[in-house]
Amino acid sequence: MRNKKKAIFNTIFLILIFSITVYMVFKGENLGEIIHTVRQADPVYLLISVVCVVLFILGESVIIFYMMRTLGAKVKMGHCALYSFVGFFFSCITPSASGGQPMQIYFMKKDKLPIPVTTLVLMIVTITYKAVLVVIGIVIWIFGRGFLEGYLGQYMWVFYLGVGLNIFCVTFMMILVFAPGLAKWIMVKGLKLIEHFRFLKPKTTRLEKLEASMDQYHETAAFWASHKLVILKVLLITMVQRILLFTVTYWVYRSLGFHGYSIITLTILQSVISVSVDMLPLPGGMGISESLYLVMFAPVFGEALLPAMLLSRGISYYAQMLISAVMTCVAYFIIGRKEQEEK
Fold first, then answer.
1. What phi and psi values does residue 227 have, to the nearest 5 degrees?
2. Taking a C-beta distance cutoff of 8 angstroms, is the pair 336, 110 a contact?
3. What is the pLDDT of residues 137-186, one digit of tens each?
4. pTM, entire model
5. CA–CA gap between residue 193 and residue 188 (Å, rounded)
6. What is the rounded distance in angstroms from the CA atom of residue 251 to the CA atom of residue 45?
7. Spatial contact of 175 and 183, defined as CB atoms under 8 Å apart
């Protein structure tokens, strides 16, 4: 019942944010002209951008397959791809992408994979995924701040906030991994403080679950220490995975007949948006992503800005969500049917 209520809330929240975003972006605009410009886009470049989105999703499946095999778990590459589609679909529709990994664990459990192994793999995927974004954000902050101010202007604080939140998130996860004793003490004290001020009712089972979950991070630290080359490979794959998605805006740029800006410049600008919105409690950074896009890419697209944003966000987020939704249905059919056949 709790899961159903949460699903209903997330759906209503998603529809509400989407409706507000559409209204704010297209208020007072000539939709006929926007649609006309979109229809003139070169389909070849748009197809390349869709391929980049699919490769972005499949990049995670390569990581999952590689790490599962490293840990001795027998898993099919096709099923790893389905896990990735499931994860990205639920990440797209839940605030702060919070629903992705629980659903991945659910499907992995149906596939008879050990929960300690799946938890360890997905934990490392999360850490490296965030770490790559932190590296990109810090590099841009140090070497491209002047360049970036020309595009963001008074909205530079959004970028700083995004970098800061990502650094905090990665730092906290690293404390969990490499200083589990300290992290466990902080979390237990924090829980007791929350219960003391009556934000939550005191429960012994809650404390036991928290302590048990914290023990999993010790296993992550042990794996990290003994598989440094594996972690390095995962970081490199994740970097390529991220960059593939960031190039979508460049392919949209080319599809509209523009040539002046390089793929490096537009990829950096798109990565700034991702760094800025990744940790915000909105599904897919919806609303703030569109706002930043309109600010940063105004000098790039000129009068074609709205059609460009419609295509870029439509492919990188909404098409990603749609493709992942279809493949999630496939996962229900294939993995669910397998479980029924084995009973």
1. -135, 55
2. yes
3. 898 888 887 888 888 888 888 888 888 888 888 887 777 777 666 666 77
4. 0.78
5. 9
6. 5
7. yes
